[in-house]
Amino acid sequence: MRRQIPFGLVFIFGIFMVFQFFVPHEKSEWVYEFLLDWIIVIGIFALALGIWSLFKVSVEKIKQGKEGGNYSYITLVGLYMMMAFGFTQQTGDGWGLYFLWIMLCSACIVSLMRLRASTDSGKKRMWALASGGLLVAAVLVAIFDDAWAFFLYTPEGLENSMFEIFFDHIMMPILATMFSLLAFYIASAAYRAFRARNVLASLLLLAALLVMSRFNPFIPGAEYVANASNWLMNVPNLAAQRAIVIGIGLGIVGTALKIILGIERGYMGRG
Amino acid sequence: MEFTSFLWLTFGVFVTLCTMSFLYKDNPFYKFAEHLVVGVSAGYFVIILWHQGLVPKLFQRLEDGDWYFGYLNSSHWEYMIPAILGCLMWARFSKNYSWLSRWPMALYIGISAGLAIPLEMSNKVNKQLHAMMVEIDWANFFGHDGFNLLDVTSGFSQVLIMVGTISAIVYFFFSKEHTGVFGRVATFGIWILMIGFGASFGFTVMARISLFINRLQDTFDWGGVAFDSTNQHYSGMFPAIFWALILFMIGYVVYEIVTYLKQRSVTTQ
User: Fold this and answer.
1) Rounded CA gap, A42 and A260, in Å?
2) Taking CB atoms and an 8 Å limit, are A238 and B203 in contact across chains?
3) Per-residue pLDDT tens for A50-59?
């Protein structure tokens, strides 16, 4: 019962979605749109599991006294702040006690983490009191401060200047730098992989060098290199990518069929 | 630029340098930036999914109903079903009822798998095959303006794309031994694949390097803002913040060198 009903659901909905694709009727399209909305909503609800999991893993790291466990505070305070900015916006010109509220809530998150990480009952009581006190103070500030408000069902929070600042000056610089650092690691991997030991490695090396030299105006015959690189990207590379995409497509179809027919059951877990 | 904006710009440069410091070794500054971006990114996506997913797809559709009727009097009451199924996902928190979370999971996977079959066949397989089956331009087989093999629209390039794709697919076909003519076609396929991998690799490296240059440009621009006396909000605090960050960085480098020298003297003793 616990496994058969889910398998039945996968089979029924899977087969239904395959066949509705070939039915060009407005009701079929309505059902298609409707079920698409369903999976989006279910997927977003699952996000709460991820957030809880992040909280649990962070607390465990502190509890076990692992090296670098204290950085978990930064993760959770960052998470909380971004969420708080996304759900709030100022209602007038000033911010009032908004930043005090942010600080109180951040401190509350930290004390909640300490509470869950503590094993000593005396310390647990102390952190419970601290969390409760900070929570009450934060709620009072939220109730009595009119300079800002919560916007849960309208997107005002997306225009909160602090939300934009965190995106522009924290998230984007770090992510862009992390991706850019890969250039150095790729270069060191390339040194090992690209040594022209045989014809295949030489082809790889030549193709990579040509594409990397494409925008270099200082090399001799720059125009010819640019043309060759352009041809390489649009002809042999296109052929290779096309073959890979066709392979991926067929692979996805095969895996989807295995799931619908109940041959692949790994997603169901144990129990 | 106002001073607070400059402070945030400085923080952006600080976290950039923190992240770049990983090139030397894993260190507390890198860990700080790494943990910060995990939390902030997670928060960002929660907000985006909430405002651009849950609100229009669920809350706005149920808003004409009443909560005390469980929104069953709403004109879109059927959207309560995915909401309930979504809540069932949280049954994972319970040891005894975690099996309930399989129902929404099964629905999600069933719908996604069913959708994937026609869509992937149409978008990935059929469209790629269709794009490959073009009429060969025999009149301009070796290029449009005289002999030019690097002409991407020439008949030669069209034939090469077709033959290359078929050969690369043949290479991935393992149900027949790669010997004889089949083996030669597969060998040509692996050549095409290696050229493709090389080109993709070169393209990726160039993209990463352009990102790196962009980060360096941002850092130099920050230095320019710190000493831009034409800025109407300019004050002595701008260069002070600049030098504070530079001194901080130098201090950390000196600390690392001293630690390294101390460790080396201990190991030699």
Assistant:
1) 19
2) no
3) 999 998 898 8
